[in-house]
Amino acid sequence: MQTSHLDLSDTTSATRIPPPLLVLGAIGVGALLDGLVGMRQPPAKLLRIIGHTTTIAGGSLIGSAFIAMVRSGNSPDPRTPVQQLNQNGVFQWSRNPIYLGMLLNQLGVGLARRSAVTIALLPVTMAILRWKVIEGEETYLASRFGDEYREYRDRVPRWFGIRSH
User: Fold this and answer.
1) Among 13, 42, 96, 125, which is 20 to 30 Å from 77 by CA?
2) What residues does 162 pair with on adjacent strands?
3) Looking at the 3D structure of the chain, how many domains does it have?
């Protein structure tokens, strides 16, 4: 969830799949399957532009989240304990801006490469992030910050504009 970091001494909150590797894996599988089934089309100029713009937006979102984390006294390294709940910067609008940025990166690469499989894998990537990463982080944050986290969770959507717990 990236609103803070996991304390790896709490094994119930530790994730086994590093989220960047999950997204890179989905992009790799998309490229491989596109090549195997012949689905990849030559990139169209407009799709390349939209794809690169989407990827840049994703990277900017990730960078903004890292800056907000450091400013709040937390490390972007998820293996370090959370010092305080991140509620400033981009974390005012999304509890998961880094994961959202990674998903935008996957979408951008899929668009730029005209990879239907990479784009089709987005809901799978999102589901794995939610069930294997975000839920553990949310459990950790609720136990670490109690009512402060629950109030934040109720106020700020997981993804931009999409209300859910």
Assistant:
1) 125
2) 159
3) 1
